[in-house]
Structure formats: structure tokens, C-alpha cells
Amino acid sequence: MSGEGDEQVEREERLGTGGDVRLVVPAAPEYLRLVRLTAAGLASRLGFTFDEVEDLRIAVDELCFHLLGDVDDDDDPFDEPRTMDLTYSAGRDSITITGRTGLIGPVPEPSELSEQILDALVDEHAVSGDDSVITFRLKKQRES
Q1: Count of structural domains, the chain
Q2: Which residues 6+ apart lie within 8 Å of 103 measured at CB?
Q3: What H or E segment, with its residue span, contains residue 3?
């Protein structure tokens, strides 16, 4: 029985000191709920306050929705589906979310409002890429 307890402690230590969670979802707005829930769940598990969890959840939603805002639902159904590939990295007092999309075209310019929202809610954010892959990064530090 003590082996089970040791495994649980080891799992929690790994999660609190750099465990990564990877999520791949279709690049469509209706899948953003999974992206938000994963961010919120990991932040809660790491001891972020309710307000910090909500800030992260809103920021992830804002950034991803911005990137997916012009997704065309009339794409050829025989084309390979485009995805968002996200990695949630847990540090001792922060979460970093990095990701990429297979969306085609130039990197969309965020609105001034989107920039203000992201600046207010997370410590770091960036979007970059070229005509074939758009990459993004968010980082939220735990204040408490």
C-alpha cells in the first residue's frame, strides 16, 4: 500500500516542477473549451488563486480565438484537418503555454483591445510565424 502513496507524491512533485501536458485539437473555435479547461485545471492543480486561474483561462481564450478568428468552415472536406498543438509547461510558480497552428496565411495582427487584454492578464505573450505555421506563447506567473 505504501507504494501507491509514493507514486502519488512523485506524480505531484513532477507536476509541480515541470510536468508537461500536451493537447492537440482541431483548429476550430468550438474546441477552445478544451484548451481553456486544460489551462485552468493545471493552474488550479499548481495552487494558482481563483483570480489567477480565470486570468489565464481568459488570456488563452483571447489569444486562440484571435488566431482562429478567420478559419474558413468551407474548406475542402478532403483536405487534411488543421490542428492546434499546445504544450502546457508547469514550473514551480508559473505556467507557460506554447503552441502552433497549421493555419495557412500571414500571422493575424491582434486588435488593440486583444493586446490590452493579454497585457493585463499574463506576464508574457507572443505570436510569430510564417505562411505555413503560426506559433504562440503565453506565460502566467503565480503571484501568491
Answers
A1: 1
A2: 27, 67, 68, 71, 82, 134
A3: helix 2-16
SS3 category, 92: coil
What CATH number is given to the structural domain containing 35? 3.30.565.10
* Domain carrying residue 30: 2-141
E-only strand ranges, 2-143: 20-26, 83-90, 94-101, 124-129, 134-141
Residue 129 forms beta bridges with which residues? Answer: 134
Quick one: which H or E segment has residue 4? helix 2-16
* pLDDT tens digits along 13-49: 655 555 799 999 998 889 999 999 999 999 998 899 9
User: pLDDT by residue (tens digit) across 109-139?
Assistant: 888 999 999 999 999 999 988 767 888 999 9
